[in-house]
Amino acid sequence: MTKSYLPQVEEHRTAAYEIDPVFLNRWSPRSYKEDQIADEVLFSLFEAARWAPSGSNEQPWRFMIARTPEDKQRFYSFIAEGNRIWCEKAPVLALILSKTINSRGDHLRSHAFDAGAAWGYLALEATKKGLVTHAMGGFDPEKAREVLSVPADYELHAVIAIGYQGEKEALPEALQEREKPSSRRELSETVFEGVFEAK
């Protein structure tokens, strides 16, 4: 396989086994250009998410997006200040949520697991399209529920910034140091055979 890693990725990430470069090229920058995303590009991300695996094909994930100034202001009202510092330049914000009740009216134990798979598909498609994404847990879910009129049987998971990567220097100085791909723990620390090993 011909490797095609982004320059900043080669400096900070190395895979122990051969994998497609898209997995290492996907990371979570904070610097965004304000350039708008064409509909055919943006909605291809959600099309990718649509095809994520799903327990009993329940497809519990939902996305609420904000692109207009008015919709983005609604999102800003529940996003933590530390994230607003950088995410306000992103042309698109998306809230990922999942339905906690299945089609038979029972609790859907896999709703968050399935929503996570959908987010992963979206993030990888974004990387393939030359976009960057950054999922944020730093938001007030109850305020978001109220502001966006989200029913009680949905759980709110994260707000995702979507856009084209900006220059590191556009960030506040404290964030510039963090504007690089993170590494990962070794496989031996996350994959166990036989019995669990706390590491």
Automatic annotation (TrEMBL):
Q: What is the lineage of its organism?
A: Bacteria, Bacillati, Bacillota, Bacilli, Bacillales
Q: Which family does it belong to?
A: Belongs to the nitroreductase family.
The record lists the organism as: Brevibacillus ruminantium
Q: What is this protein called?
A: Nitroreductase family protein
Fetch the InterPro entries from UniProt.
Nitroreductase, Nitroreductase-like
Name the Gene3D superfamilies on file. NADH Oxidase
Alphabetical list of Pfam families matching this protein = Nitroreductase
- Residue stretches making up the Nitroreductase domain: 25-83
State the UniProt keywords alphabetically.
Oxidoreductase
The domain of life is Bacteria
- List, alphabetically, the CDD domains matched: TdsD-like
